[in-house]
Amino acid sequence: MDHPSPHVLLFPLPIQSPINSMLQLAELFCLAGLQVTFLNTNHNQKLLLRHTNVESRFRQYPRFRFRTISDGLPEENPRSSVQFGELISSLQAMAEPFLREILLGSSSSSSDGVTEAPVTCVIPDGLFYYAVDIGNEMGVPVIPFDTISPCCLWVYLCIPKLIQVGEIPFKGHDLDVLFENVAGMQGLLRRRDFPFYRLIDYATDPYCQIALKEVESIPQSNGLILNTFEDLDGPLLSLISSHCPQTYAIGPLHLHLKNKVGEKRMPISASSNSLWKEDHSSIQWLDAQPIESVIYVSFGSMATLSKEEILEFWHGLVNSGIRFLWVMRSNLLRGEELNHQFVKELAEGCKERAYIVSWAPQEKVLAHSAIGGFLTHSGWNSTMESIVQGKPMICWAVYVDQRVTSRFVGEVWKIGVDMKDMCDRYIIEKMVKDLMVTNRDEFKKSAEKLSNLAKESVGEGGSSYNALECLVDDIKKLGR
Ligand code: UDP
Fold first, then answer.
1. 279 with 362: CB under 8 angstroms?
2. CB-based pocket (< 6 A), ligand 1
């Protein structure tokens, strides 16, 4: 049977980690010979072009195009975690008409004037449930890419049942109560690990409402892409499959892409997709440190901390006696810009053992031999990047999938410790010593084992390698 030329439209959430993962997926599709359109917001596209080589990198693929739309917010508005809900709904208002137009084929010429084949498959972020409705309405297959952790996605999928049996909203204030109706997580998942752990009323919690809409849209889609691998999440993937026509576990994506780019000997290799300027002096500083002597500290691109929390972490780290490299983003401090003087004074106080940057080349940092561990907020990309490098973690989860992921790091994969809601300098000091010194060998052994499995999964014949081939084949077969 003759199929139309496959043309995929990728549409990420307008924040760093999904943009990173979707660009990696876009490049994998380009290498597989698909036509790809990447829909970005004007705001993020500007940052991406300013701080990365994406323009020259993607010029290697003549069938790749960027398209941009407004996210609906005035340019001067901040786009941090506080405004996330507002950003998502204003973007929806802009994206819905755009999607209808491009799927109709009436918006088929790109910014460079090239006429494109009609879009044959949409790959939106899993949170864009409305893209599934639009695809179904217009007869275009939709395969969402859920960029959160599969363990959290599984919890989302269980929410309707938890409501039905009365486990949510929570009765009482004890956050150590275990959930009984999350299959595969009995005896493991406590209220404090729940993505919306302060949930009082699911009907009025906007994030829980979006999660519920996403849950409804999954069975209506043509499949689901996940950034994980069988040996990490096998049992959960089976559970998730029961809600979804077809799942494709093709991660760790960044490693998968590096392999393919190497295989095809592309002149420009896969590199950063950062929306911030990377400070490479962090690598020079690491070059001067002994092997596995440094703990890397980063809370991702969105999480914010109070000044008190920053100071607890700082004193805990300093008191541990371990060297550390800390990413202090300018918007790390909740509610206000991080004061340069404050950061400078902190750094001056521990010059010989600490180094601060405002944004690091994280994949390179984690791959550095001087790094022995990672103090992380348990964002899913950071977790996968750490697993690939076999670096044990201390988890201080802030919200949503981070809360479930950190529980898995500590109790299921046993590649680190979960601080959860504690932010106390004595606990931080103890955990840093535990990870980097006392129980180092044990953590390192389990982290390295998982790292090897991750590498096998994206090698020829591995589970993620095969799943990607299957995904590309299925996309090629999808007609309109
Ligand atoms: N990252 C980076 N430099 C930094 C901090 C983070 O390149 O200094 C990247 C990191 O490699 C990861 C992403 O930003 O790919 C953060 O994603 P994650 O899912 O861990 O957290 P989020 O930002 O979504 O909370």
1. no
2. 16-17, 20, 274, 298, 300-303, 327, 359-360, 362-363, 379-382, 385
